[in-house]
Amino acid sequence: MLQETPMRASRNDAIELSVVIPLYNEEDNVEPLCAALLAALTAQPRGFEIILVNDGSADRTEQKLQQAAAGDARIRVINFRSNKGQTAAMMAGIDYAVGAVIVPMDGDLQNDPRDIVRLLDKLDEGYDLVSGWRRDRQDNFMIRTLPSKIANLVISRVSGVPLHDYGCSLKAYRREVLQGFRLYGEMHRFIPIYAHAQGARVAELPVAHHPRKFGQSKYGLNRTIKVLLDLLVVKFLTKYRTKPIYLFGQAGVGLLALAFLAGLWALYLKFFDNTSFIETPLPLLVSLCTIAGLMCLLMGLLAEVIMRVYYESQSKTDYRVKSVLNPRQEGNPGENPGEESRGD
Ligand code: UDP
Ligand code: MG
Fold this sequence. Notes:
The chain contains twelve helices and seven strands. By secondary structure, it is of the alpha/beta class. α6 (141-159) packs parallel to α9 (222-240) and α10 packs antiparallel against α11 (282-313). It is elongated. Residues 106, 108, 110, 212, 217 line the site of magnesium ion.
């Protein structure tokens, strides 16, 4: 422990940039990747570390990474015990990173390490997050590029954050932007949406994209479906996380109102039009809408309870403070009105 503290302190001081790279079965890419990264990063002034996360590879990736780490102390390697997916690997790297700026990237050299500096320069123009845009994407058009284009249009529309390429791993984040995020599923691509909702300034920059030289892509068409499902979760969480009853309640009230109107109409038909209840589908509509409406309300209440448990058990807050001016001095209770009234 005694040794740990000074080491961490010096590491924190020197490192401004952490590059985080998940790798799964990328044995032939490790060497050229590390060479290209070191060439690009030593040519710029910021202190950096390269965090390579081996996501339980079954090939020789682990050995190659070991060699790379032995060759340069700025290369750190995290080995997973089993394959947990790109997002989990990225999260592990982000958790381990100490840089003020964090740049995730793919480990297959489809992203170009030389673009990192361009992203950082853009960040310095006053942004909190700069998202790479593979404008000239070098992947199979029908099963990768086209579905991704459609997904990006949908995501931009639904989220209100217009980006061309959510799926591009190469992005630059200020550390504050990532604080408090946990990533699940395919969600690393949605960080700009969360960040935007928290008030971060988001920019986009076209970056190079190369065809894969070694190894294979780990994904196919079914990822687009996963991404769209994740979008649903993200939309729900950014908009209704603290008040789920507003969403479920609106649906519930709407359905109950529909049931009520259908009931009125059925009564009208019976008494003024001599049409018996069973001659129309209205009674069915009344019962279905009533049941569905009540279910929605109950589900909303349940979601509220879950949210309360989440926030209150972990003392989490819904707001994020950017800064406080003239904060109270510790140990000077006379200046603190809250302290005075507590004595009453
Ligand atoms: N990757 C990973 N775990 C996985 C799948 C992929 O760490 O389960 C890594 C992979 O090694 C690569 C990055 O995630 O560095 C992007 O994967 P890939 O190149 O297959 O995706 P694509 O570029 O085809 O979208
Ligand atoms: Mg790739």
